[in-house]
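Same chain as my last thread, 607 residues:
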Amino acid sequence: MGLYKRFRDWCPQSPNPFPSKLKHYSAPVAIVLVVTLFSVSFFVVSSNLLFESSAVKTLPILSVSASTSDLSGFGEVISQDTTWTKANSPYDLPGNVLVSKGVTLTIEAGVTVNFYRYVMQVNGTLKVQGTNVDNVVFANTNRNVTDATKDQIAAINFGDESSNDAIEYTVFDAMGITYYNCNSSITLNHDTFKNQAFSTYFGGFFDILLIIRGPGSTTITNNVFTGSLQDQCASSTIYNNTFTDGGVDLEGGSFLISKNTFTGDATAISGFGLTIGYRANAVISDNSFTGYSEACINTVTSSFALIQRNYIQNKLTVDGYPFFGIEIAGSSPTIENNTITNCNIGIDVYSHGSDYSAIEAKPTILNNNIYNNQVFNMYLGYPERGGDHTIDYVVGNIEAANNWWGTTDAQAINQTMRDSKVQSNLGAVNFTPFLTTPNLQATPNSTEPTPTIKQIPSTTFLEATKDNGGKVDIIVNGNLSLGLISLANLTSSQSSATSNLTFTVTGDAGTNAFINVTIPKNAVTYGPTPTIYIGNQKVQNQNYTQDADNYYVWSTNHFNSSFYGDLTIEFTNGTSSSTIFPIVIGVIIAVAVAVLTLLAYKRMKRE
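reply #2:
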């Protein structure tokens, strides 16, 4: 009441809400108000800065599927659950067909669908239910071909909203499948792909019948492919299939390749039966490979590959071109209990060169039968195609003990190795002790239990080099660990009180990358606050935790375009200066507000 009475006494007659007596206090009151507003605004802004790194943000996903809201270009739109029956077969596509999101198209056994060079876009779900006695047939019949349509390719394209698709006992005649952003799952069982006729529609790869990419999973079993398959899903099982005049290209996930038959010729894609590419973890067991124009199995900077119990027989040389049983390019697979014979070169090993800064190859090779190969059983370096010249990427010593080399004569075995005795910058193949009889277990075993995807590790162990030349073991999980990370360095700067763990990173356009790094605390001079940067840009979606022994740092990042450069985890000593500054300023402002308010109140009491 006292303050109210005094205020009333000041201005009983005046309509002015700020009479003359109040002018004595207008300056401090105004300062308090301005400073308070500034303080609140500052803390709102600084709070956004401080907590930006811990906010969970939705990353954009590149989609190449047709939008359900854009119906132009579709001759027919299926907007409700529909069944195509044998009684109404055949079905002739009037143009491109869209299966809308949330809609299921079921195709019964015995149905024939004539695509006439059109595309079926599936944004919902496709269930194709052929049987072993009554197949479904998808045919690329060439009716009404004009100059405008002659280069079109019939295909089924699954959109990123499609889910739980299954195609069984279906014949694909001169057409194929694309699934560019598989977010769910697709099952292909007892299907036949024949009469391949694809080129530009499938990304420029000739004879590719099936392209699947994305964070989902695939199950591909008991199929017959005349042509090739490209699989870049997070998780895939490829089991008991037959591949003729083509092969399988794997990238970006965990794969089980078991009990398949691969038969190639000079027209196969890139001449490879099986390529284990960047980011791919794979178990390759109990398969048969014969007759490819480059290599039956090619491993390229893949972080993990277990190659076991396979029969591998490639072509002999033609016009000076060497053909490999297994080609190891900058990767470290485990090769055990295989038979590799009648190839031009049994196993070729070299560091993966220029574009990836010579990633060293360190395979484990044991208990195999490697014999009767035309030129060499083991070859260190890369023989240039069409001549005798060899590109000698530096290769360290290769451990290849406990294998059968076709003889017990050590000198004869040594002559089947191209290593340091030929070029001084190469390592040596250490092949002793060696088996004195063939390994009878080194062959596909139809009764051997097939491993599961869960048994395929997705962990990479890296050695980071410190300032003093010492080594630190770093553990990396996630899809960025799968062959995309190399050349780790851990440096510290006393002047800036920072420690930096830096990797060389490769990112494909339109992909989402996840990484989880375990870093020993005793290796980090300055800490404990890590921040992740890619190409000097702070990654928005990141976080970390720690225990007594390790830091655990993780992030996700979307690559809008292809990227090759540095990923850096920067550790700062305590809270970084960029974080301390707004906190200090905020405290100063808060204290100033409190002091000014107190002074104003005391002055009012004195009056």
